Amino acid sequence: EKQWYQRRVRGHFADMLFVLVCSVLLLLGTAQETFTTEYVTPTPEIFGNHHRPYFFNYHPNLCGRVPDLRQINPNGVETWDYESATNGQANILYLSEAHCGTCQSVAGISGMLARRWKSLASDSRREDLSVDVQVVTLNRGTPKSRNKLQMMTRRIEKYYKVKDFVQIVQDNAFSEMWDILGSFVDPYGGRFGNETMVVRSKKNDMYLVDRWGRVIRFIREGVIGRSRTSSATTSLHWRDVIHHDFVLEKDGETVCDELQAEQLQCFKVDEWSLNGVAFRNLRTGSALTILVFIRADMTEYTTEGTLRDLIDLSIRWNAPNYVVVVDSATRSAASFATVDLYRQTIGSSSNVRLLLDEGNKVAASYYAAPGDLVAMDDKGKILQFFNRVDLTDASLVAELERLHLMGNPDCDIYVTGGPWQTGEQGSAMYSTATPFFMNFT
Predict the structure, then answer these.
(1) What are the helix (H) ranges across 176-237?
(2) Are 421 and 261 in contact (CB under 8 A)?
(3) H or E segment and range at residue 216
(4) Which of 322, 332, 386 is nearest to 358 (CA)?
(5) Is residue 185 predicted with pLDDT exceeding 50?
(6) Is residue 421's pLDDT more than 50?
(7) pLDDT at residue 310 is higher than 80
(8) Rounded CA gap, 265 and 381, in Å?
(9) What residue spans of 294-393 are helical by DSSP H?
(10) Distance separating alpha carbons of residues 119 and 110, to the nearest angstrom
(11) Residues 62 and 262: beta-carbon distance below 8 Å
(12) Over the stretch 60-114, which tens digit does the pLDDT of each residue have?
């Protein structure tokens, strides 16, 4: 009887094992799609040249300028400012906590990558992949972070040996750089992208900034040593995405070129005024207004380039309204009076109006960089964007003449609101999200 009982127990366990194996084989055979969808997270196709939408994080200041970041000591004396420290160089702006080992590693690895990317200039086979980037690390102003600042600095200098590529700046209660960069409202937050959430700066936040100070990518968890799945079978490292962005930025190409066409073209931005002049008044009297952005401290945009060619064009073709907005960076603003005198001297018979931007608010509203041209009608509707323009190009002038006569037929579908944008920018109904952006991160 005992042997019979043991045989029955063994048979019972064998039956259970058989059922379990059959269940697993059935799941593997019929639910492969479920496993792939849930655990691998297949990626939509890359849209454009900038690894979107999967490698995309929403930020309301995307393609806007980095705020005025200054380090102020307890005596109220300014000891560091972001604009002077970066000096017109593309950079990685990284938020760290010095007592966090991962933050120290990310700052050090970022510096090592910057050193490696710069060294590619001496390799004839990969010279086109070389970029000159620096890393600015903002250490949080909490007591724990401040106490470990020296340790982090020593590790950057002694272990990673990249002190020439990494600047570590200590935040404090007088500077509040973390708060200036953070505190924003994300209307597409939550698990399903349908919640409005207040988002604040966190450690490992990373901003990629181009030479003009525009935020060209925001990474919420910028641990660049990690990889992210870019398809069901392959992965892509953040460092490769960052390098690709800066290689394109070297030639002036950024994701902002795509966002201009996707989010702003055929729509109007909020009305603005500069130097006591309302842009609404400058648009009247012509079916086409040409808005150009320049830097006053660079001759390629003034006496030997964009502004000179624009004045020549306005003398030959005075039908449109011509408005030039000068970048408000410190060196550019210092040269504004000289450039305005140049315009009055050689362009006295032209109708070009020169305005100095204030905090680059106008450039940010158009996601614009120096060299960009915006063509719009008399109501302020944007007809088309042109990036890195050459006003001596006959095809560009012909396209502007076509816009002047016929407008942009593609904008007719947006007369009553587009498929996802339902109003003018700045109104309660306006949405800056497109189907490509909705929370793939």
Answers:
(1) 177-181
(2) no
(3) strand 215-219
(4) 332
(5) yes
(6) no
(7) yes
(8) 8
(9) 306-316, 330-334, 336-346, 361-365
(10) 14
(11) no
(12) 889 999 999 999 999 999 999 999 999 989 999 999 999 999 999 999 999 999 9
